[in-house]
Known about the structure:
Layout: E1 4-5, E2 9-13, H1 16-27, E3 30-32, E4 46-49, E5 58-62, H2 63-68, E6 78-82, H3 85-94, E7 103-105, E8 108-114, E9 120-125
Parallel strand pairs: 2-5, 6-9
Antiparallel strand pairs: 1-6, 3-4, 4-5, 7-8, 8-9
Amino acid sequence: MPLFWTEFVWIPCSDLAAQKRWWILSFDCKECPVPQDWDDPLPLDVALRLPGHDAPTILLRDRREVQRAGGQPATERALIFCANLKKARGFLQERGAQPGPTQSGGGTEFFELFDPESNAIEICKEP
Length: 127
């Protein structure tokens, strides 16, 4: 079973190249083509897949391009799930990411992580 999984996450970016590097370094993501069945693809979109997955579930979008296309900014924080918070925290720390303290809420345990543009990413223990 993969360490991390999510159904779909999209992250607005001011510096798409820096964000892509951060996701690749922090989560060991792989870049892949944007699937044709994803809604409203934009030319600069970057699709990433988490290790152990065949399909991409993370979409990085250029903030200015989204605004020009009439799109709305993301309002929800990114949720990524794991079975073992301690292992997930260790993996991210080894890769140079800085996870916050473990918290409890909504019937689960989680910690937060912030990307270089201060987008919050919640790593949640799957109940």
